[in-house]
Structures are given as structure tokens and as C-alpha cells.
Amino acid sequence: MLTGTQRSRYDRHLRLAGFGAAAQERLLASGVLVVGAGGLGSPALLYLAAAGVGRIGIVDDDVVDRSNLHRQVIHHDADVGRPKVASAARAIRDINPEVVVETHELRLGADNALDLIRRYDLVLDGADNFTTRYLVNDAAYFARVPVVHGSVHRFEGQATVFAPPAGPCYRCLFPEPPPPGSVPACSAAGVLGVLPGMIGMVQATEAVKLLTGVGEPLIGRLLRYDAASMRWGELRLARDPACALCGAEPSIRTLVESAATCAVTGIASLSVDEYARLRERGEQHLLLDVRSRPEATAGGIAGHVNIPLAELPARLGELEAWRGRLIVCQCRAGEASQAAAQLLRTAGFSELANLEGGYLAWRARVTSKRNP
């Protein structure tokens, strides 16, 4: 039963033919997990809170950077340096103090994704990397929770809903991740600031429709948007009966198997704890920091050598002395460095490792050691 305050807040929903009090009560009783409080998550979180979703979880292990602000509208300039989950939670409470906000300042992994996702009715995927998208897709499938997917690149965006068996899953469309570095991150390629807002609002719309049962969701349909030409398009999607996850004879039955499909062969993956032990043992290696110069100047791991990813192809000669010796690649959060490691492997470097979680994970480890 809606309270007087709720009837006032959601008055325009209550007046909407085909929506009304029943749909609003379903929203208030629902829970949504938003993966990523970035460009896609920002508008989605704001509109889900305003619409009256009763419980919203936010997953993000990043902090607000000034370069985020042209598209991640849930954060303010005063939030620079704060955890994104804290900044986003504050904005949600400002819009709708009745919403229960649950912050998860962590990086999704095979060890925590399933337990986290199964607590919610729906997942809104605002991830900015392929590894997390596959993990969200697979964990949600095992938890029987639909995924509202969105992605953006430069001037183009797309959105759909993954809810097998009613429609395909992410792996039906993309059975395997693309080779590292083949699709540049927005930090390298750039992205039009308003574009994630458009796609994030589509995702919020689909979430509301799924939770209330109102309208026709984007199951089996991919909505595409080209901001440069201001054109929308739609593609029909079908399930792949041979899909490794949701097909008739799946080969992926656990998240451990899921994570293995996203591993980069020939490149070791080091956790920050493993890397710390490597340093403590005094093992000779080069720590290659591929962040931009301003990022590296603002703070870094002692002993690093900074060659920004965009400059790496032209500066491979500077690393010739390290052929056959260990190079540990490191970036801000672990994605660009994986692309750097793949580039080095292609260039003939054999002893390579990628630092999981990058500088952010290392900084979090140092902070936790200081404040046990």
C-alpha cells in the first residue's frame, strides 16, 4: 500500500495508463544491482532511484577522476578522489531518500559475482571491459536473473536484454572475448560525453519495464544508436543452440570455467598480493606502467617505468634489454595493461605478467595494510 508521500512522489506514474499503483508497488518491492557507477551507471542509477526502485546495489572499485565528469553525471567535481560507490550513493539519497542503497566497493570476480547477483531481481550491466561483461552474463545466467546490457564506443552505443531461455545471452552473440587491445578503451579512443547518458537511460527504461511487467522489453532485440548521425536501428537476435553457456550441451557450468574463457594465454595474471611477494623476494623484473603521464605523475608504484599505452608501439625499442626477462604490465585498473602485455607478446616478448586491478588495487592494498 502506497503512503501519502509515495503517492505524491510517483503521482505521474500513478496517472499513467497501464502502469498505476500496482506497477509502482512492484518497483518499490524490487532490487536492482548496477555494475559500474560510470558513464552508463550514472544516468541509470539516477532514474532508477527517481522511479522508485526500492533497493539499489552499486558495484564499483574505482574512485572519481576529473576525466570522468564529462559523462559520469552522478559525480561532482568535489567528489574527485572519493570512491564512486560513495559518491553515487549520496546522489541517490538526495533524489529519493526512501531508496535503500547498498554499496559494494569491490571488483567482481568468480569468487563473489554469483553470491552478489542472486540477491537482486535484475542486473544492469554498465561495465567498461569485456571480462566483467562475460562474468556478469554468466553469473546472472546461473542465478536466473535477467541482465540489461549496454555498451558505448566513441559515437556509438547499443542496448539489449539478456534473459535466456526467452532470448539469447551475451555469449550467444560473442562466444569469446576479442583479442586484448583490438577494441580500445574509452580512455584511449574517447567517447562523446552525452552518449552514455542516452544508453544508460535506455537501460533504466528496460529495467523498469522488466520489474513491472509493463511494455515489451528488448529481449531478442539489439537497439543501436549512432550519435554522430542521430540514427537509431534495431537488430533481431536469436539464441545459439550451441552456446557454451545456455546451449543444449554447455561447456561452461561454473564461474571458474567462465573466468578461464577470458584468460589471455601466455600472459600470467598477478594479484597485488602475489606481486608484493615477488618484490619482497627481490625477483628481477620491469614494472611497466602504461597509464597516461598525468596519471603516473599523480602517484604510482615505486620503481615503475612509464610508457603510456598509446606510445608503446613506437617505443618498443626502449624495452629490448628486457626480452626474455620478466615484464609486469600495470595500468589504472588492469585492462589497458592486459592490452599492453598482448602487444608485447605479439612483438616477441616472452616473459609477461599483468597486474590484476592495477594501481587502484595496489593502492587499496597499501591502505588496508596501514589501517588494519
Overview of the structural elements:
By secondary structure, the chain is an alpha/beta fold. The chain has 2 domains: 4-261, NAD(P)-binding Rossmann-like Domain (Rossmann fold), CATH 3.40.50.720; 268-370, Rhodanese-like domain (Oxidized Rhodanese, domain 1), CATH 3.40.250. Helices cover 36% and strands 17% of the residues. The chain contains 15 helices and 13 strands. It has helices at residues 4-9, 11-14, 20-28, 41-51, 84-95, 113-117, 130-143, 170-173, 186-189, 195-212, 255-261, 272-280, 293-298, 336-346, 358-370; strands spanning 31-35, 55-59, 100-104, 122-125, 147-153, 156-162, 221-226, 231-236, 268-270, 286-289, 305-306, 327-330, 352-355. Strands 3-2-1-4-5-6-7-8 form an 8-stranded mixed β-sheet, with helices on both faces. The chain has a 5-stranded parallel β-sheet with strand order 9-13-12-10-11. Helix 7 links the parallel strand 4 (122-125) and strand 5 (147-153). Helix 4 (41-51) packs parallel to helix 5. The mean pLDDT is 92.
Radius of gyration: 21 Å
What ranges have pLDDT less than 50 throughout 5 or more consecutive residues? none
Strand order of the largest sheet: 3-2-1-4-5-6-7-8
Q: Regarding CATH, which class of the largest domain?
A: Alpha Beta
Looking at CATH, the homologous superfamily of the largest domain is NAD(P)-binding Rossmann-like Domain
- The strand count comes to 13
Number of domains: 2
Short description:
The model has no long low-confidence stretch (mean pLDDT 92).
Write the layout of secondary structure elements.
Layout: H1 4-9, H2 11-14, H3 20-28, E1 31-35, H4 41-51, E2 55-59, H5 84-95, E3 100-104, H6 113-117, E4 122-125, H7 130-143, E5 147-153, E6 156-162, H8 170-173, H9 186-189, H10 195-212, E7 221-226, E8 231-236, H11 255-261, E9 268-270, H12 272-280, E10 286-289, H13 293-298, E11 305-306, E12 327-330, H14 336-346, E13 352-355, H15 358-370
